[in-house]
Structures are given as C-alpha cells and as structure tokens.
Records
---
Amino acid sequence: MVFKKILTIITGTIISFSANAEMRSEAFLGYNGLRFDRKVHA
C-alpha cells in the first residue's frame, strides 16, 4: 500500500515535470520564431 502511494507520487512528478519541459520548449521556440519573423520583415 505504501509502495503504491510512493510509486503514484513519483509517476505524477515525472509526468508534471515532462509536461512543464514541453511547455517551456514550446514557449522558447515560439519566442525564437517571433524574433526570426521580425528580422525577416525588417
């Protein structure tokens, strides 16, 4: 029972961490894309 609870916490942490990493990389790529567009149009 305790082991299952620990496993659930670890799994939840990994899932939330990977989701945050994906969001961060998407935001970073979006920011780079905007800067690139400005350079091209300027």
Note: The two ends are 62 Å apart (CA to CA).
---
Amino acid sequence: MGLFGTLLGFLGCAIGFPIGLFIGFYFFIYSPPQEIQEPKVRPIFELDTDILQSLIPEIPLWVKSPDYDRVGWLNQFIVDMWPFLDKAICSTIRISCEAMFAEFMEKYKVKKIEFENLTLGTLPPTIQGLKVYETNEKELVLEPSIKWAGNSSIVVSVVLLSARIRIELVDLQLFLAPRVTLKPLVPTFPCFANIAISLMEKPHVDFGFKVLGGDFMAIPGLYRLIQETIKKQVANLYHWPQVLEIPVLSPTVVTITKPVGILHVKVVRAAKLLKKDLLGLSDPYVKLFLSGDSCPTKKNVHQEEDTEPRVE
C-alpha cells in the first residue's frame, strides 16, 4: 500500500506540476494589469535626499550641463508637425517592408503578412537638450538628447495556413544620445552633402511585445535578455566610432574645396581656329576647368594674330 501510494504521489506530481505551471503562465500573461495610481505631486523642497537622488537621471541635460541648450521652440515645432510626420514615417515603413514581407512569405510558405495597424501614436519625441560643437572643418556637429515614450501601436497580421496570428509592438520607448554631423558644407541646397550619425551611449529601448494577446515581455528573464541583445546589436552597428552615413547630395555635386597642389598647363599648339574678329585674326586663349569650384585662374593671351598659334 505504501509503495502504491508513493507511485500515485509521483504520478500526481508529474501530472499536476505541468498543469499548474501552464495555468500559472496563462494567468500571468493574460491577466489584465493592475490599476496604476497617479503619484502625489509635492513641492521639491518637501522631498528628502534619497528621492532627490533618484530624480537626477530624469533632469534635462540643459539643467545639469551648461554645454547643452534648451530647445523648447524645436520641441514645439515637433509637436505641431508630429501628426504629419507620423503618417509620412509610417508610409515609408510600409513601403520599405513590402519587399521584406514578400521574401519572408516565399521562403517560409506564409500565405500573407500585412500591417493591420501602424501608427507611432500621438506623443512625439522630445529633445532634452542640444549641444553644438565648433570646429575648423566645414561641418556642423550636433549632439541632441532624445527621449521618446510614445503610445505607438504596430500590429502585424500573419496568415499561416488557415490561422491568423497577430503580433503587436506597443508602447515603444527610446532614449538616445546621438552625434549628428552635417558634412561637408557646400553652397548647394540643403547646404550639406552627407549626414553622419553615431550613438555616444548605448540606447535604452523598451516595448511591449504581444503574440495572440499575451505579453511575452512579461516573462521573467526574457525582458532583460532582449534588452541586452538589442543594446549589443545596436552598439555594434552605430555606437561611436561606428558611423551611419546618409548621403544627401550626389557625389558629382560635392566638390573638393581644399587645394592640394599647383597645376601648370602649357599649350603647345592649336590648329584651324575660327576668325572671331571683324578686322584681323583671332586672339586665342585657353580655358581649363577641373571642377565646379571658382578657383583662381590666370589667362595668357597669345599676342600674335594667328589661326594656328604654336609655342616653340
């Protein structure tokens, strides 16, 4: 009887443990979040030292560092333009993802992949401060501090056989400290030829990832793993000294502005020149162009009137 009871106990544990684990996981993923209470607002002089220390990372850079300027006017510009920027950015994302979706469907035999919903939300990013470097080169170096805690909603619908799977990316947060270099500066609109972008710090990325309604980012351990993976991959691509180069103007428009030497040209002979003077023959001279720049030039006119001048 004792052996039989022990076997029943092990059997019950073997069956009950997976069932309990599955039920617990289901309620953990699909249970609605608890109602969040709004914090009490108190004057800063009523806060103790520990609370003030915890608030220091949230203080804008223009408060902590005199090198950063406050750009409230630029943030207001972004707020006014955000509804239109949202549509333009989302339209670009849709177009750029069409080829990727088509390749994925052909490779994995998926019937259909499409954006069910794509919006960056109503909350625009804010620039916490802007630092401008002065250099002797023909370039403009900017270092903005960008924070975006938006209410974005990106829903991708995947039709596999007869099942439709909804994948959601919601509540995206990005904290970036990029260095933006506009170089070289040229006299052709928009007055810079390339945009070079580097991240001076590893970015903070946070988002909700839902599959079939369950938030996978709520699984213990998975959130930190994804965070570290994203930081590592982004750092390998764009963390300084790595640079993302975005060409703006055609290379043919961008010309070398710094002289690197002196070129002496001697014209030895010319033949069958047309007569351009009403009286007498032509006064020939030569024009030589190396680029589109206005460089100092020197013109020597051949003094002898001749249609076939020759220098001995």
Note: The CA atoms of residues 90 and 241 lie 30 Å apart.
---
Amino acid sequence: MLSALLVLWLSWSQRKPHCRRDNKPAATHPIASFWTAAQMLEHPGEAPAAQAVMQAVETVCQAGIKNPDMGGTATTQQVTDAVAFTILQKVTALESIG
C-alpha cells in the first residue's frame, strides 16, 4: 500500500509546474525521483517496495522509454507514467496473491 501511495505522489509531483529563477519551466528528472523514492522506502524497512520501484525503472529504461538526457525521446510525463504503471501492475499482482 505504501508503494502505491508513493507512486501516486510521484505522478502528481511530476505534473505540477516547476520554475527556475528565470521563470522558464524546469523539468523534474523522473528517474532520479523514483530512485529517491526507492531509497526512502528502504530506510523504514520497506525493501520489497523499494525493489519493486527500482525494477520498474529498469524495465521501463530497458524498453527504451527514457528522457533525452539518457539517450531517449520520451517526455518527463511519459517516463513517469510508464514507471508508475509498471509499479502499479506489480503492486496489484502482489496484492492478488497474498
């Protein structure tokens, strides 16, 4: 449940506008945000949830869904949505098992 809430928060945080000092929009790097989220989950002992987040990031990157700075063409929102969808699939599968 904690990981599902974290995914929802990350999805929302990627959608809100971010501005630099020059008032131009600044993109949040979604892979860095998910990596940070995984570390935040590990700290209180949520290692399985942290692993699910990192596995989702790896799955999405291996599928070629990456930001331009990582050699891809996807937007911040596309990467965020892909990782969030992958995590939610894992969470749903785990909840149906146990």
Note: The chain has four helices and no strands.
